[in-house]
Structures are given as C-alpha cells and as structure tokens.
Specification:
- By secondary structure, the chain is of the alpha/beta class.
- The protein folds into 3 domains: 18-57, no CATH class; 72-173 and 304-332, Response regulator (Rossmann fold), CATH 3.40.50; 176-303 and 336-343, Response regulator (Rossmann fold), CATH 3.40.50.
- It has helices spanning 18-25, 29-37, 44-57, 65-68, 88-104, 117-129, 145-152, 176-190, 205-218, 238-246, 260-272, 304-320; strands at 77-82, 107-112, 134-137, 157-160, 170-174, 195-198, 229-230, 254-257, 280-284, 298-301, 329-332, 335-337.
- Strand 1, helix 5 and strand 2 (107-112) form a beta-alpha-beta unit.
- Helix 8 (176-190) runs parallel beside helix 9 (205-218).
- The protein starts with 17 loop residues before the first helix and ends in a 12-residue tail after the last strand.
- Pfam families: LacI, Peripla_BP_3.
- This is Substrate-binding domain-containing protein.
- Residues 16-70 form the HTH lacI-type domain.
- GO terms for molecular function: DNA-binding transcription factor activity; transcription cis-regulatory region binding.
Length: 349
C-alpha cells in the first residue's frame, strides 16, 4: 500500500482516490462509494473507518470526474483565486493565465476572495471538490493553512502578486521594491522631499517589498519618516487618515500609492478636498484612463498578464513533472510611466 505523508516538501503529493480510502479503512471500494455518495446503508463502524481514512488522506470527491476526465487522467481545470475579479490588475492576470491554459487545452475557474481568508478557504475547497488539477492563488492573508491543505491533498499551488512570509510555494510577483524605488526617485527628482507611502496589509510580501523599496529610496534625499507611512489602508478609513497626515506640520508634498484601488480612493479624496493640484501622486499598477485624469497620473506599471502567464507555465510544469524541482520564485519587471502628476505640489525652496 502506498504511504501518504504530510511532509513540507515543495512538490505536491498524489491526490488520494476512493481506492486509497478503501485500503486505509480496510473496507471495500463499494462501501467507500456509498459513504461518499450517500447512496446506501453503511454499518456505523465501517462509516467511522471511512470517515477517519478520508480525513487522514485529505480525500475529496471529484464531482466532475465522470464528465470531465481526459485520457491523461486530468480534469483540464485550473482554479484561479484573486482578490476581486473586477479589479483591472486581476482581469489582466486572468487573461495571461488563459492564454497559456488555452494553448494547453485547459480552462481556468475563477473566483474572488474579497481578501477574506475564510472565503478563500471555501473557494479552495470547492475547487478541489470539482477536481481542479492545480491552483493559482493571490493569497487573501498571511496564513497558509488552506494552501498547505490543498498541496498535501495532491494539488500543486502557485501564488501570485504576493506571497505569505517565509512561503514555501512557487510564486510569481512584480519587482515590487524596484518599482517603488523608481517612483520615489521620480518624485525626488521633481523636487519633493517629504513623501508619503500608502500600502496594504503587512505580513504580505508585496507590501513589505514595496515598503522596503520606499525606505531605500529615501535614505539619501530627505530621510524616511514613519509618520508618513500608512499601511493596512482600507477605503472607509482612508479619508480620515489622509486628512490627518496632510494637515500636520510636516505634511507630505507627494504620495506613493502602492495599489491601484488605494490610488483610486486617494485621488477621489484629493479631488473632494480640491487638493489634486497641490499634492503629487505616483501610483503602483495602472488605473483605467490614467492619462486622461487631471492631472494625468504617473504610475509604476507591473505586467499582470505576464505574471499570469508565468504562473500558468510553472503550474503546468509541476503537473507534467517537466520543470525544475526546486522552489520557483519568479520576478516580473516593472516600468515607470511619467505623465505629470509627479511634478504637482513641488515645494518652493
């Protein structure tokens, strides 16, 4: 009988089957089938043994197996979990994933977690139950329990856009630190010295890397000031936090906003306060019609479609066992597009 392990190895283990459950439980395959499908009476002791074996092996029924199994024994389905399917960044990432999967004869199932770890857990379980061959996930938080569970069950996982700290998952991310450093350098070149940082959740690598790039760029020009760093930014609380920062005696003359949704919230608030021509802004991830805004918005542009393509390639290599066995941590270059907003609000010496 094959041994199933809960080791922390990078590669996925084989997905458990009903035959494996039957072997561990010491019952017939038909007994396992009756328990899984609820299709017949089962003695209490046999039921308990099947349930124990199912939990031990991490087995989940593949509810689409009969309809979707191909000659290679796979479903042809890949689960893609993102924050928000309507976010332009993730829409483009999805497009990149689709390009690679279509050429491979596979299809992505896509769902948004809303950055809620509980919802992410539900989605991962549902995808696994529907027989996905692998998962591409923008993690909803720093905890990895649900992702580890799927990997132990035999499902390869690639994380995108951000990775939990000390992650042991294959990953594809933008060059976050270099992108923010370029943004700060553009602002300081324009004449700004007091620059604020707006970012997302701490403990996620994308936030930490962008903050590190911010700190690095400010060592020489004017110094790094913790009072000008706002993280864990949410739409509801941002106006109050921005007002307090901009009203202070050491208010910033410019802002680096490190997520496209945060940039949208920031611009909306600056316009509401009639400050759009008094505070410089550089965003991270482009926003729709950025060049048509007043003033036109300068942004660090990642390449979400390429991030998606790279993630899909890694996942397919894992499934085919054709790629490198070591952990993959690929970084996609960013580029800075200056449209004029970096020159707004430059203090007069």
């Amino acid at each position: 009988m094959e041994t199933f392990s809960s080791s922390d190895s990078v590669g996925p283990q084989r997905r458990a089957t009903m035959r494996d459950v039957a072997a561990v439980a010491g019952v017939s395959l038909s007994t396992v089938s009756r328990v899984v499908n609820g299709s017949g009476a089962v003695a209490p002791e046999a039921l308990r043994r099947v349930q124990d074996a199912t939990a031990l092996l991490g087995y989940r029924p593949d509810r689409r197996a009969s309809a979707l199994r191909r000659s290679d024994g796979r479903s042809g389905l890949i689960g893609l979990v993102v924050d928000d399917v309507a976010n332009p960044f993730f829409s483009q990432l999805h497009r990149g994933v689709d390009e690679v999967l279509t050429a491979h004869g596979s299809v992505a199932l896509v769902a948004g977690s809303g950055r809620d770890p509980r919802r992410e857990d539900e989605i991962l379980s549902a995808f696994s139950s529907h027989g996905v061959d692998g998962l591409i996930v923008a993690p909803a938080g720093p905890e990895t329990g649900a992702l580890e569970r799927e990997r132990r069950a035999g499902v390869p996982v690639v994380v995108v856009d951000r990775a939990p700290r000390d992650s042991t998952f294959d990953s594809v991310m933008a060059d976050n630190a270099a992108g923010v450093t370029a943004a700060v350098e553009a602002l300081t070149a324009a004449g700004h010295r007091r620059i604020a940082f707006l970012g997302g959740r701490r403990g996620i690598t994308s936030t930490e890397q962008r903050l590190e790039g911010f700190r690095t760029a400010l060592v020489a020009p004017g110094g790094y000031d913790d009072a000008l760093v706002l993280t864990e930014v949410e739409e509801e609380g941002l106006p109050h936090r921005l007002d307090a920062m901009l009203a202070g005696q050491r208010a910033p003359s410019a802002i680096v906003s490190t997520q496209n949704v945060i940039t949208e919230w920031t611009l909306r608030h600056l316009h509401a306060r009639n400050l759009q021509h008094r505070v410089g802004v550089v965003g991270f991830d482009d926003v729709p019609l950025a060049e048509l805004l007043d003033p036109p918005l300068s942004t660090v542009i990642a390449d979400p479609a390429e991030i998606g393509r790279e993630a899909a390639r890694i996942l397919l290599d894992r499934l085919d066992e054709s790629g490198p066995q070591e952990l993959q941590a690929r970084v996609v270059a960013t580029r800075l597009v200056l449209r004029g907003s970096e020159r707004v609000g430059v203090p007069v010496e």
